[in-house]
Amino acid sequence: MNKQAPILTQAARFLVSLEYSDLPSDVTNTAKRAVLDYIGVAIAGCDQPVAENLRHWASQRSQGGNASIIGHDLNLDVENAALVNAASGHALDFDDTSWATIGHPSTVIIPALLALSEELDLSGKALLTAYIAGVEVAHKVADLMMPETSENGWHTTGVFYALGTAAAVCQLLALDETMTTRALALSLSRSSGIRSNFGTQAKPYHAGMAAKSGLEAVSLAQHGITSAPTALEGVDGFIQCYASDALAKKVRSMVKPILFGTGWDISTKGYAFKKYPNCSGNHPACDLMEALVQENKVSWQEIESIHCGVSLLGPKELVCHQPQTPVEARFSLEYSIAASLIYGQLTLEEFTQEKIMDPRVQSLMQSITMEIDDDLAKLGFIGTAPVKIWIKTKTGDSLFLENDLAIGNPEKPFSDEDFSTKFAKCVAGKLSPENDKNLLNQLFQLEQVEHIKSVTQLIKRER
User: Fold this and answer.
1) Neighbours of 372 (CB within 10 A)
2) Is the overall model pTM greater than 0.70, yes or no?
């Protein structure tokens, strides 16, 4: 029996041979909506403190360039533009989630491709092909390592998408097999991100860091820096370090190749697009609270206590129990529930200092508890955040609610109207209505856009 080529070499062969005509329509349709969704949330997040801080930092270090900074009349070099724009896309935690990684692919890979496509004057079709390729490589590798990587405390957005970005960029530049393999292996040395930094500006920085690192890995490979093709599954390699030695040994013993481009992950697992601007671990509970408010079954003034049963990932992501800032509030189940009940909605407008520090909200949060539910724990280390909620009223009545999956998942999908509505809310006040409509139309038909510059010129701040 023939020994398989190293997995990174297999990935490189897939990337070298891929063409847009190879892509199924359902894959390209999801990818177009992912690009649309990313650009909307990046415009919304471009003035957040983390984006401003990184923009100032990058501006002092950039040697100039032609890559647009979203929401600003500023150009930087490709790597620093990707850093800033990726962080902008993740600053509000409003970007899509992949269940292959329990991470955020689009806010890393797309800004790197936007910057490079703008500089090289490439098309929407080229960007889409590269984006899909990068996601496919990252997610097929994640399938070998998850959920162990997440269980070990790594922020998977930073861990898997430096690789995804490098793969996408190699495909976009049509690099050969040797150069691509070298770049993929180099990207593994730059992967990082720890979950203990959730609830701070470090989390969106992880997205920017991964985008910049992926681009840098390709550039280094082009300048002759070498690497090991077995860096993924080899002894002391990526799988061993980020997952386990046992998994690495299992992968080394595999006799079948990795089926890149067969059973596309973007189609088979799909994405969860976010209805609410916070950590996806909150979302099934947010759906329940929205329905509760609409049905007017109970008012927040009547509530004595709320107890939430969550799955294993819940306590690792939802780490802020009495948040004081918007960044902390995005990682607080207590805030998501309290704000939904008191304000009757959970939108971008609810993540302000004033609304978080409202005495009613701060008081109600103290009546909300969260712990792992025994039955939900049996589901394993999953990212879909199923939840059970018990509400006790001051009159002694009780109410039980449960939700296995949030709106925005493939099983409960967004319509194109939902995407358009979310986009409009994200760009309100930052784009003119005319440019809003023009940009939205281009993004829905991205494969027909001949020059990405026609998109990037619309996402800069209007004078």
Assistant:
1) 14
2) yes
For the stretch 56-100, pLDDT in tens is 999 999 988 999 999 999 999 999 999 999 999 999 999 999 999
DSSP string, 68-82: EPTTSS-EE-HHHHH
End-to-end C-alpha distance for the chain, whole angstroms: 65
User: 3-state DSSP: the chain helix, strand, coil percent, rounded to 5?
Assistant: 55, 10, 35
pLDDT in tens, 323-338: 999 999 999 999 999 9
Among all chains, which residue has been given the structure tokens 């600003």?
Answer: 72
Q: Looking at 37-131, which runs of residues are DSSP E strands?
A: 67-68, 75-76, 97-98
Tokens 């790597």 correspond to 79
Q: Are the CB atoms for 48 and 89 separated by under 8 Å?
A: no
* Residue 133: count of CB within 10 angstroms of its CB: 26
Per the CB < 8 A criterion, the answer to whether 355 and 339 are in contact is yes
Looking at residue 317, its amino acid is E
Q: Are strands 368-372 and 303-310 parallel, antiparallel or unpaired?
A: parallel
Give dist(CA 69, CA 76) in Å, integer: 7
Determine contact, residues 261/24, Cβ cutoff 8 Å. no
DSSP codes joined into one string, 272-334: E--SSSS-GGGHHHHHHHHHHHHHT---GGGEEEEEEEE-TTHHHH---SS--SHHHHTT-HH
How many residues are recorded in the chain?
A: 463
Cα separation, 62 vs 77, whole angstroms = 6
DSSP reduced 3-state for 120? helix
The pair phi, psi for residue 287, each rounded to 5°, is -60, -45
Q: Which domains does the chain have, with CATH numbers?
A: 7-272 (1.10.4100.10), 280-403 (3.30.1330.120)
The DSSP string of 191-253 is ---BGGGTTSTHHHHHHHHHHHHHHHHHHHHHTT----TTTTTSTTSHHHHHT-HHHHHHHHT
Phi, psi of 399 (to 5 degrees): -140, 130
Q: d(Cα 356, Cα 287) in Å, to the nearest integer? A: 20
CA geometry: angle 236, 135, 386, nearest 5 deg: 90
The candidate with the shortest Cα–Cα distance to 70, out of 129, 110, 34, is 110
| Residue 157 to residue 142: CA distance in whole angstroms | 11
Specify burial of residue 377 (Cβ count, 10 A radius: 0-12, 13-18, 19+).
middle
Q: Which two tokens stand for residue 176?
A: 């050969």
